[in-house]
Amino acid sequence: MKLEEIIRILQCRVLTPELDLSMDLSTVLASDGMSEILAFHKPGALMITGLTNIQSVRTADVADVRAIIYIRGKLPNDKTIELARQKKLPVLSTALGMFEVCGILYEKGIKGAM
Fold it and tell me: Residue 14's domain spans which residues?
């Protein structure tokens, strides 16, 4: 599924609009535990998390994640967004919770990384 479609379905706010949003995504990693993201990552996945600190972007970079969606309307600080821009990692935010986001994406055919 295209990231642009995910943005529409989850009613995301795009925090890095200058980055490419046309990528295809077929796998999701969903966790607030960055160690779990690293342990179970699948390159090219979409990361769903409520952790908005700079470590989330660093973890996504190491795990070869293609985009991050922050849940429950959470927004990272400017330093975190700037690092995401440098890493060319699209960053989004949705008002939905993790359960809803994962359920919606699963219904649309996106699989978990495990």
Answer: 3-112
